[in-house]
Amino acid sequence: MKKISYNKIINSIRDSIIEINCVPSSELLNKYVSAIENEDNELSKKVLRNLKENAIIAQENMIPICQDTGTAVVFLNIGTEVVIEGGYINEAIFEGVRLGYQEGYLRKSIVGNPISRINTGDNLPPIIHTNILKGDIFNIIILAKGAGSENMSALKMMSPSDGLEGIKNFVVQTVKNAGANPCPPITVGVGIGSNFEGVALLAKRALIKDILDIPVDNSITAIETDIKNKLNSLNIGPQGFGGKTSVFDVAILMEPCHIASLPVAININCHVIRHKKIIF
After folding, report:
1. Where are the domains of the chain?
2. In this structure, are strands 186-194 and 127-133 parallel, antiparallel, or unpaired?
3. Binning pLDDT at 50, 70 and 90, where does residue 29 land?
4. Which residues, including other chains, have CB under 8 Å from residue 115's CB and lie 6 or more apart?
């Protein structure tokens, strides 16, 4: 039996919320460098250099990389042999998110009612996806998801006869329609299968595929590479100024689905992927 302190969870989430909003990952900085080296368009090179410099300044001063510090999306993986001492897990997540946005002086972007649109003032509630596992596994993945890219996402209940080419065309058209709105170079999460609500979650999880323990599937990798090449040929480029790098990555997750359905969802993220895995 693994025992985890309620306060430890709160503090870990608070610190992670601040970190992901203010500290760029080494992977992101490397992507900027590679894109700059690969780019022929001088204006696009300059934009990429500015994005990289902005991220470094944010880290040096512990200020947000982007003013939209997003919705807190939490993926909770908790084993049946884990005990939270001193409180309830969801309350710990709420408190950690609240403190992260308040103590980190991060913008509060959540409205309590989508019609009256009054700000909650503390960026609550977070979106929590819970996965219950065997044993004493306990980890939490935090994703800060901005609205500019989220608004460009799409879901379509396709026909099985549309096949792989239909899926690729849907992804390309969605990114083409998005243009500069999601602040490219973007990451594109693609969910294929499950059902209406499940495929949207698949696409969201695809955005954090790099920190999920998922075995490499060469057939899926080949599809991801093909779609990425198609998207980078659109000439959208960094922040919409044209160039070779419209997307940093394409990630696909699949699940079984009904014989009469082919659900496909596309969840887009801006050039900054703000996520972290906390292992307890």
Report:
1. 2-23+63-145, 148-273
2. unpaired
3. very high
4. none
- Which pLDDT belongs to residue 217? 96
Only one residue has tokens 């992927």, namely 273
Q: What is the pLDDT of residue 57?
A: 98
pLDDT in tens, 208-256: 999 998 999 999 999 999 999 999 999 999 999 999 999 999 999 999 9
DSSP per position, 13-62? HHHHHHHHHH---HHHHHHHHHHHHH---HHHHHHHHHHHHHHHHHHHHT
Q: What percentage of the chain carries pLDDT values higher than 70?
A: 100
Helix, strand or coil, per DSSP, at residue 160: helix
163 CB neighbour count, 10 Å cutoff: 11
Distance CA 253, CA 26 (A): 24
Q: What is the CATH number of domain 2-23+63-145?
A: 3.30.360
DSSP state of 146: -
Q: What is the pLDDT of residues 48-96, one digit of tens each?
A: 999 999 999 999 999 999 999 999 999 999 999 999 999 999 999 999 9
- Distance (Å, rounded) from C-alpha 73 to C-alpha 77? 13
- 17 in the Ramachandran plot: left (φ > 0), alpha (ψ -120 to 50) or beta? alpha
Q: Which two tokens stand for residue 77?
A: 């993986």
Instruction: Respond yes or no on whether the N-terminal peptide bond of residue 24 is cis (omega within 30° of 0).
Output: no
| DSSP class per residue in 220-275 | HHHHHHHHHHHHHTT---GGGS-SS-SEEEEEEEEEEE-TT-EEEEEEEE-S---E
Provide the edge-to-edge strand list for the sheet that holds 138-145.
127-133, 71-79, 138-145, 275-279
210 vs 181: CA distance, rounded Å? 24
